[in-house]
Amino acid sequence: MISRSTRVRASIGAWFDARAAFPAAGQAGQIDAIRLLPFLAIHLGCAGILWVGVSPTAIAVAAGLYVVRMFAITAFYHRYFSHKAFQTGRGAQLLFALLGATAAQRGPLWWASHHRHHHVHADEVEDSHSALRHGMWRSHIGWFMAPRNFGTRSELVKSLARYPELAFLDRFDALVPILLCAALYAAGACAESHAPALHTSGRQLLVWGFCVSTVALYHATFSINSLAHRFGWRRYATRDSSRNNAWLALLTFGEGWHNNHHHYPAAARQGFYWWEIDVTYYGIKMLEGLGVVWDVRDVPDAVRDARPRETSAA
Ligand SMILES: [Zn+2]
Ligand SMILES: [Zn+2]
Which residue of 54, 109, 122, 164 has the smallest Cβ count within 10 Å? Predict the structure, then answer.
């Protein structure tokens, strides 16, 4: 029998070292409140704008970090690490894993393993974040608050776990976000004393650049799990309830073409036609032009043009 104090210590330890947590235990709906305190603190930190004020510099930093980190999550955490939709070198793999890690959405192996599990069991009872099976709350944020989903599903990411640098990022997943916070504070403090025309400060860049930007990034990303399986239209009769949603696609740089994606997850593009805006795909093609990535997988015409067999609007 594990004592309560041991469990509390393990939950706090897991803030810094993912291996400190107890292995997959507990009921599906159970929540580890202690381990979630940092997640709640980032949300509460947004209220700091009342004290630190706002400046064009702060907004530009928050927006810039949203763009860079959304791209790292969608192009690399999702399309590269989870689906191998293109190839890249080890240096670029690490660079984008680091950028993705700044989004505080856990490490690349955890993210990819749970996402691969979603594709295997999409909208079945086993799907941890199925809005259809478990409701909106669980699909949006409840699923990763459950201790049973805290661990990386190692059996699904064996090829990625071969890289010690990725395994390190996955184990110490708080390290990179903490470094980003420190860098933002230092940059703001430096600007305050050396470039007063920027009208910013360490505290202001911390609140806007980390808290506000990260919370926006959180809920845009999570909306693919919750809203993109509920609202939108279905081009393809996939065995799940995924939908295409233009608004979500704009917000998430292309991930909102979620029915397309479930139809053919191997492709680097999720907007299958030119009018389906997919900013992440444009970025991947740019990196391909620069020689940073290669073997970018497209969707075969026959797969893309498969006659729609089902149309339903929510
Ligand atoms: Zn899905
Ligand atoms: Zn996917």
Answer: 164
